Amino acid sequence: MTVVNIKDRVKNNKLNLSGLNLTEIPTKEIAPLKVSHLDLSNNKITSTDNVFSLLPSLVKLDLSGNQIKSVAGDIGSLQKLAFLSLANNKIKDLPKGLGKLKQLKHLNLSNNPLKPELVEAVGPSQNNAQCQSAAANAIQYLKGDSKKQDDKQNKKKDKKNTKASPNGVQNDKSKNKTKPKKKPAGFVSKVFGFFGMLISYTLLFAVLTGLSLYALSYYDKKAYGNVKAKLLPVWGSATSNLDPKVASKVNYYLLQAGNSFDQAVHTSIEASIKSYKWVKANPTVQQYAKNVLDTWKSFWDSVFKKVKST
Fold first, then answer.
1. Is this structure's pTM higher than 0.70?
2. Contact, 247 vs 236, CB < 8 A?
């Protein structure tokens, strides 16, 4: 049935087309009017396809008392919609698009053959308070339902990625990956490792020996001369078997290293002497410093006596 004079029915952006035995929504005639309130209750409307996207200015929509079996998904385009009545229809489920209606405050779904899980989630909607809770519950339900469907799709993808073994056990390739075992070191690497360790310990021993000899030369020149007299023949015999050019280079580098080492140790000893003089000039720590100095001297005396006796 074609509705005549629709413009004459508009009052304050409100259009009342209730009880006119309409079998479809006259969208082409309604869209240019840009109404905010639309009453289509108590008609014979069966479909809402290709309707909502053309009526974005709707704030209130009444579709109760019709023969609608499903709501079109483009209802999500009604971003201003705050009131929606779908009571007394044949609706079993709601579209995901309804979950996008952020302004929806009132939803009436009473007297519809809703599926049990939807009824449990949304609850009854008879009075205003229940309709308000139904709106919030429906939006939350639809958002959660979309997440569940996404989870189901992800699980399906996971099942495709995993292959079942002949025994019915799923084999996950990522789980079956074992960490590569470290290959045992070969003979060549062991030999180089041994010589590297030997060189490191030899250099460490040489540094410690040089430090001891220089400290000995500073505190007791006689003891240092005795040790030096014993070490020089050993070093001479060790370098005598080397090529003269190689031996000269070795001695040169050792002399340079020894001079740098001597300078560093000498600087540290001078700093120690200055610190000692500072401590001695302060009466508060003089006694403590004296005790430390006596202990230090007794220690070195005991060491040097043993060196002299040998």
1. no
2. no
Name the amino acid, one letter, at 125: S
User: Helices 221-240 and 244-280: crossing angle, nearest 10°?
Assistant: 160
Question: Would you say 62 and 36 are in contact if contact means Cβ atoms under 8 Å apart?
Answer: no
One-letter-per-residue 3-state SS of the chain: CCCCCCHHHEECCEEECCCCCCCCCCHHHHHHHCCCEEECCCCCCCCCCCCHHHCCCCCEEECCCCCCCCCCHHHHHCCCCCEEECCCCCCCCCCHHHHHCCCCCEEECCCCCCCHHHHHHHCCCCCHHHHHHHHHHHHHHHHHHHHHHHHHHHHHHHHHHCEECCCCCEECHHHHCCCCCCCCCCHHHHHHHHHHHHHHHHHHHHHHHHHHHHHHHHHCHHHHHHHHHHHHHHHHHHHHCCCHHHHHHHHHHHHHHHHHHHHHHHHHHHHHHHHHHHHHCCHHHHHHHHHHHHHHHHHHHHHHHHHHHC
| Residue reference for tokens 């629709």 | 6
- The answer to whether 58 touches 81, Cβ cutoff 8 Å, is yes
Paired tokens of 245? 């050019």
Amino acid at 90: K
- What are the pLDDT tens digits along the chain (310 aa)? 555 688 889 999 999 999 999 999 999 999 999 999 999 999 999 999 989 999 999 999 999 999 999 999 999 999 999 999 999 999 999 999 998 999 999 999 999 999 999 888 887 766 777 888 888 888 888 877 545 555 555 665 566 555 444 444 444 444 445 555 555 556 566 666 777 777 777 777 776 776 666 666 666 666 666 766 666 666 666 666 666 777 677 667 666 665 666 666 666 667 677 766 765 677 776 677 677 777 877 777 776 665 555 5
State the virtual CA torsion across 32, 86, 75, 98 in degrees, nearest 10.
Answer: 150
